[in-house]
Known about the structure:
The protein is an alpha/beta fold. The protein has helices at 66-70, 84-92; strands at 2-7, 25-32, 35-42, 55-58, 74-77, 97-98.
Amino acid sequence: MLILIPVESDKGIESRITTVAGMKKWALVDFDEGEAQSITFHDDRTQSGAEWIDFVILENRFENAMDFMNEGMMCLARREEETIEEILSAFKFKELDEIGF
């Protein structure tokens, strides 16, 4: 499955999540069998080449998630996690909050 995360820089698994307004890159994580298979970084999320993205994980529950939902993505928000590594661990154990309207 593919997971999209707005990050402040391209530092691999140590990249830190940020708001959509403050993001510098989009991290696209190929998550399978409980771990990241690959992580790619993109300036524009539409240029990732992915036909379907399953989840977007946002910095907080107050982000505008409507565009992502309209594209069929499940929207989640972090709790305390900062890095992609921490976020993926929380994702694996269902410790992220669902964003819904």
